[in-house]
Amino acid sequence: MVGSSSSASRTVEPQLTEALATWLPAQRWFGAKGSTVDSVQILEREVLRDEPHFAAEHLLVEVRMTQDGAVVTQTYQVPLGFRTELTDELRPWVLPVAGEVAVFDGLRDPEIIGLYGDAFASGNSTGSIEFNIVDGSSVPSGLPGRVLGAEQSNTSVILGDLLLLKLFRQVPPGVSPDVELHRALAEAGSANVAPLRGWLEAVVGGEPTTLGMIQDFAANSNEGWTAALASVREVFDSPDTPIEELPGDFARDAHRIGAAVAHVHHDLASVLGTVERSVESTAVEEILARISGVARVVPEIAQYIPAATALISRAEASNSTTVQRIHGDLHLGQVLGTPERWLLIDFEGEPAKTLAERKQMDSPLRDVAGMLRSFDYAANHLLVDQPEDPSMRERADLWAARSIAAFFDGYASVAGQDPRDEADLLRAYELDKAVYEVLYEARNRPTWLSLPMRAVERLVS
Ligand SMILES: Nc1ncnc2c1ncn2[C@@H]1O[C@H](COP(=O)(O)OP(=O)(O)O)[C@@H](O)[C@H]1O
Ligand SMILES: O=P(O)(O)O[C@H]1O[C@H](CO)[C@@H](O[C@H]2O[C@H](CO)[C@@H](O)[C@H](O)[C@H]2O)[C@H](O)[C@H]1O
To answer: What is the ipTM score, two decimals?
Structure first.
């Protein structure tokens, strides 16, 4: 616990918990959008630095809230900074705490990011937090910290343009699949992930729990989503040029992404195994439960339940399928293009699932379906909120079809099996993802809702 009157981090607990109750739900990474926070309790408060004008603390907090009438509890990781003088860059990140000391999101402060880097370099525990380095790897000390632009489900920061440190925001008790799968892929010698260098953990709810991980930073990389959007823009800007003649045609990249995904699936299967399972006992039946659940928030989706039921029955008729550990939340934002190859990142699985669910074996078709949905998103998202223009829509659909065909070809060229051969099961997984997206967009980006809604309608027809 903290409390020296000569330190910057003297903010008392009731003030902090009250501020966190307001501040947490407004963060991009807060996972329980649409819920009401009832209380915040500080589980751990570890001091990383404590000086008169500057302090840093690592907090684990338990948030109790009400979501759709039910009480939900989630644990979040909240590194905080305390400064008596604030820079302009830190101003947007302050918590509503009155007093002389400003309290802010610690991961926005390069000095605090550097503290985490140094903790890895020394490999020592900091109070209850353990910093682990992968055998054969090392982290240099004194690496300058830098904030990575985009806010996502977690917060990633850069150390010396060499390493990327991702701190998970929501931390369910247990080892993260991101660390687990990166370690398996290292064992397989996978070239399609950024090598894992270390991870940090603490005991949460009585279990060793991953708090974050550190891996090589692919400095010259471009996110698949950004690259795909650039290509789609070109398609719209040159309406009379056949897509295959455009310099930014995405088919070649889509083919390489397909091959990268197949390599990762192969490597995960080789290290962590595969199981033959009846389609009925895969998560396919849960798709209907998902639709019913989403219909409570987005009632328009209920009309598709009968057609979805028919689709699931067709998928179940395909008997058995092979399951294995998979990525679980694959989309164009989860692939990074480097000059040499495409990398897959962020193996945490679907954010809406529990940790135990995310660690279950599943069909690789779920990842393939995630990519198909993403090509559809990339093709159509510039048309959201625009008056319907059939010629633009036709170009968008052509771009998506071309990219998807190339992705399938790339996947099949490595896997030796073509996902198109399991068409009904693949469609069921696509529907599942589209339904997930309906809820995701309703809660996070309501202006994008028409995108997955259009897909649900198409997939069940
Ligand atoms: N190894 C890496 N090298 C370079 N950039 C990366 C790397 N890993 C992730 N990123 C960037 O960081 C962003 C967030 O990473 P991600 O693992 O998807 O985090 P989150 O769990 O918050 O979604 C990605 O969209 C990507 O742009
Ligand atoms: O933040 P995560 O990467 O864990 O994923 C969540 O957010 C994604 C949006 O950032 C969301 O993806 C959806 O939008 C993407 C475009 O922004 C699109 O490429 C995906 O196909 C679409 O699913 C993802 O579903 C959600 O889990």
So the answer is: 0.97
